[in-house]
Amino acid sequence: MTTTESASARHLIERAARGHYRTVYTPSALDAAAQLLADLHATGARHGIAPGDWAGEHGGDQRLAEAVLLAQVTAYRNASLADLPDPYALLSEAAARAGLAVLDRAGEDDTERPPPRVPPARAFVRLARLPRTPHWGWDGTAPLVVSLERFDSLTSPAWKWELFPDLGEPSTQMVQVVAPPPSPAVADEVFAVAQRVLTGALPLYR
User: Fold this and answer.
1) CB 174 within 8 A of CB 135
2) d(Cα 108, Cα 86) in Å, to the nearest integer?
3) Is residue 206 part of a domain?
4) pLDDT 10s digit of each residue in the chain, 206 long?
5) 99 and 71, same structural domain?
6) H, E, C per residue of 31-62
7) How many structural domains does the chain have?
């Protein structure tokens, strides 16, 4: 596989990802999807199908890249993971590495605390606003929440990341971050996304 072919696959994946509402992909998630797409292109080439042929007659068909992204998301969601012994520590340490201040009301969600000896199914941190943070909430001062939780409480093996302002009530103003299974490196990528949200570089959907 050439550098040009890899770059082309990455471009197609990024283009497809931009069309996903309320969803942001970490660099490692995009890398994994781009590698899969490049491998599919290589397989097609062995059968006489050029990479450009996947895009249809007019070159605008994104269905293969969309399918690759969907497969990548599904694989992450179905991943069989060990329990995280301390997801809050994963979040708070990543925030510290990113230079983002964590406010006092942060930690495990007391309203969803699991039974004794069962690892927590949700953790979150509230990040202090930065000078360029957009106005959120009725007074414009809501902080940003970074949440890590099971897809279906304790019954699902995988975790999901979400970013949303702490408005004190349910809101559609949020973004889901697609990432590989949680680890310090993945948490760093997620908090890089959070930093973009806090600086206004990445707007939250309404």
Assistant:
1) no
2) 9
3) no
4) 577 778 888 999 999 998 888 899 999 999 999 999 999 988 998 999 887 777 766 566 688 899 999 999 888 887 766 667 788 999 999 999 999 999 975 444 443 444 445 566 788 999 999 999 999 988 999 999 999 987 665 555 678 899 999 987 767 788 999 999 899 999 999 999 999 999 999 988 66
5) no
6) HHHHHHHHHHHHHHHHCCCCHHHHHCCCCCCC
7) 2
Residues 6+ positions from 10 with CB-CB distance below 8 Å: 30, 31, 34
Give the range of the structural domain holding residue 108, as residue numbers without chain letter. Answer: 87-198
Query: Residue 113 and residue 122: Cα distance in Å, rounded?
Result: 8
Q: 73 and 98, same structural domain?
A: no
Q: How many CB atoms lie within 10 A of CB 109?
A: 14
